[in-house]
Amino acid sequence: MIDILKRRFGLLGRNISYSFSKGYFTEKFNDEVFAGNTYENFDISEINHFSGLVKNNPDLKGLNVTIPYKEQVIPFLDKLSKKASLIGAVNTIKFTKNGKLKGYNTDYYGFKKSLKPLLEPHHKKALILGTGGASKGVAFALDELDILYTFVSREAKENIIDYDLINATTFDNFQIIINCTPVGTSPNIEACPNLPYEFFTSKHIAYDLIYNPEETQFLKNAKEHGAIIKNGYDMLIFQAEKAWKIWNK
């Protein structure tokens, strides 16, 4: 059992009033085992405000990091875990006993643990929609699962295809489609990535990192054509619990 101490944790991001993390940890801390812990949102308009936030809150013990700062926060940290360094994105920060800030990535862990039960032998290749910080954790998890992947963005670049190139042949070759963009998040719930959804089949997995709404338009469209669908809620639970372990080790 963890000793009852008064400790402060929080979420770093921008426009995060909808935050999963605050609700999750606040509920967790309502349990008497965790009494004394608090969790709050730190909503900053630009990453340069991070140093002031740390200076003005010397009793902070840990932070989660969300859009758009998973990559931008790295130069402000003293150290990265090996995996966070390889991924190039941070979603968990630990305030160490000697006052240093160490960055970790638990997104990859949460995604991997939530996707694994859905996988069958024919799930060999994945399309990752989006190229932001969250997509980097997803790519790392796919590497660990020996699943090949290709990034999709609105502009084609080296090793990235654009949406206009996706067709029936693409869906034959890629059996997992993962939305790592914010398209379809509440309140814009009618929006969805620009895909030819008619090519989804029962052999496909459609995974959306979004959890609000529970079933995005992306997932609804894929489901209509028989695809297995999964939202990001379980991923968030797994990554949050992993962050909690990091803060307490």
UniProtKB/TrEMBL annotation:
Record GO biological process: aromatic amino acid family biosynthetic process; chorismate biosynthetic process; shikimate metabolic process
Record keywords: Amino-acid biosynthesis, Aromatic amino acid biosynthesis, Oxidoreductase
Cellular component terms (Gene Ontology): cytosol
Residue ranges constituting the Shikimate dehydrogenase substrate binding N-terminal domain according to the UniProt record: 11-93
GO molecular function: NADP binding; shikimate 3-dehydrogenase (NADP+) activity
Pathway(s): Metabolic intermediate biosynthesis; chorismate biosynthesis; chorismate from D-erythrose 4-phosphate and phosphoenolpyruvate: step 4/7
Pfam family, one: Shikimate_dh_N
Name of the featured protein: Shikimate dehydrogenase
Organism: Flavobacterium circumlabens
